[in-house]
Design a protein that fits this description.
heterodimer; A: 356 residues; mainly beta; Methylamine Dehydrogenase, Chain H; 4-stranded antiparallel sheet; B: 88 residues; alpha+beta; 5 strands; globular
Amino acid sequence: MTELLVGTKKGLFVLRGDTGAEKPFDVAARAFPGDVVEFAIRDPRSGRYFASVTSGHFGPRVMHTMDPTGEWEPTTRLGYPEGSDWSLERIWAIKPGEADGLMYAGVAPAGLFTSVDGGMTWELNRALYDQPTRSSWEPGAGGLCLHSIATWPGDPSRLAIGISAVGVWLSEDGGASWRHGNEGLVPRYIPEESQGNTIDLCVHNMHRAPLRPERLFMQFHGGVYRSDDAGESWIPIAEGLPTDFGFPMAIDPADPDSAFVIPLVADTDRVTVEGRVRVFATRDAGKSWTSVSDGLPQKDAYLTILRQAFDREGEGPGIGLYFGATSGDVFGSGDAGSSWFPVRERLAPVNSVRVA
Amino acid sequence: MAIVKLRAPLKDLAGGNREITIDGASVGQVLQELEHQHPKITGWVLDEHGRVRRHVNIFVDGERVKEDAPVAPDATLHVLPSISGGSR
């Protein structure tokens, strides 16, 4: 059985089903009705579930439980320090780290929080917060958000994070210090003469290939990129895609040459291209792309798939792929995208999809 | 005279012109003159109070600026949609 955690603008949906049966999944639970669920995961080490919940009245919080169909409890509150000019708005990502109990949360305005007790208490990463350029950081359309946290398998000292719109930041000392990793990124949305110096770099999503951890894949705000030097520099790999705009990515942990994207028209029209919902896969590190879209809507389907709304299950030829759209539709594939089926229709607008 | 560079959809509202030469001592004056010469742009870049809209970026010679910034006679002014605009 596969369990999906689907964060939506109207709560968290826990979906359960058998991908091999290619039938709609059951809604096992709906939690946090009335609140926005930005993101939810299950930490495979502890089995504990975490959900990032934003109340229109009471702000953002992280909730946790061992049973997503039961009661949830709040962790300690995340927040910027007293006297800060920033207040926490949203929690975009929660990610297990590479040491016992180590976890990360990426938030808006752009900050990184760390937990060393399995997600129960959280502490602001001061080195990032204290960056002298912070006052000039510019938001993307989703806000000034830290959404991508790429850990290095087996090494908690090495981190890459992606911020919209302040680019890639790298650390080799567990977050005690940070530096940029932006060489090669081309922000077409600012004048050419300013592109070389800017840090207004709108990363949409970034993933590390665990079998070759110096390799990262990125969906940018106009551009798809690959890094082979741990995020120091980036190579454009969008040729062969219908467009280079989009939000989420997924990778195959068994194959560092594989990545999956869902192209959208452009920043001015963030819907699937030509009314066709298509996932594109590369198996050669971005040299070529192939549509893997059988079973997805191919006529008059103008969907928007947000940056956290795409995930995978397992690896290799039988890798499962799942994504959700702001239309409330969730789709799944149990064969690396060769065939797709509707996991669930007409949920609330989907912010995130994660396999539990 | 400053050179104002436009992209879609503003270019289309300015009769298809990517570059327009306009006189003005400040960004606000240049943009008001742009509206005067191309009335279809009125309200797209400046709001009803004459301020640059929140999700529009103005660059003068590579520097992002606001409506009160000075404009040299040979300056190049880009009017660009901000990445913060639009829907997610």
